[in-house]
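Moderator note: this is an archived Q&A kept for reference. The question asked for a predicted structure of one protein chain; the sequence and the answer are reproduced below.
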Amino acid sequence: MADQNGLETKVSAALNCIDLSDPDIHKSAASLKQACMDSGFFYVINHGISKEFMDEVFAQSKKFFELPFDEKMKLWVERNRGYKQPLKNQFFDQETNQQAHGEAYSLVGPETEDDLDPEKPLCGPNVWPSADVLPGWKETMLRYQQEALNLGRKIGRIIALALDLDVDFFDKPEILGNAMPYVSFNHYGVQDADPSKEYILGTPAHSDPSLITLLATDEVPGLQICRNIHANPRVWENVAPLKDAFIVNIGDMLERMSNCVFRSTMHRVLFPQERYTIAYFVYPSNDAMIECFPTCKSEEKPPKYPPIKCKDLFNIIFKNVADGKTARDITEA
């Protein structure tokens, strides 16, 4: 079925669902492995973060985006944190013939009071809304950072088993023991959008440079995945929101470390109405070595990529994304 832009779009992608309350972790690992080799996306339910708290996080996120533009711009910084002003005029997508419509607020962690170190792009202090403007906002978001990281570590243990690694492989200090998460609170708005478009571009096609990404959404659809980005025409599949679930996807780092056993799939946001999401990007420590897992290489299948420190890969990515390259273009180089 072709959409209004002439792109082939399926109604919905069928994703595996990983239940973290299931005591049979090996069954979960088998289901996760199949998902990561197929689409690179899966749902996670019974994840341990309460619905009441998630409702509060979304409510606080919405309060921020409802602030006057001048108030939000007080938190704009050049580095990858703080407020990111509306994306219109910054990204134009040839495939949909649309400009991106959205705004974001980002946090890095763990937060430090050190000066911004150009060699460590996810270190340093965050910029926070004033407690007079948004009381309790900082405390809520810091708690979310920690709870989402705990969830990422739980998923990491299942991924380890799926790749025939020790269950605690990702718990090492240099990987997720001292992880560097990056959180993006996203608001996709319809202001100034082309009224002739049934769906509005929120984010152009891209892959994530992370190990994994945990996406919390409201009930508005918008996420689409493309399993074969080289197909002509491309086939985009809608990923429906699942109540109280996270949508999890494999990032470029994990694809690279798994020697392409797991897939980092291209995806985009094309939304029908105002939409809020929270993307939690799980990265290892700055000094982690991004190299092929021992279980994913052999004489017949040597590593496709040379080892590189996480902070060095970050710097390559952040220096080149501004030139219009995707993280996938860079990590494949």
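Archived answer notes: The radius of gyration is 19 Å.
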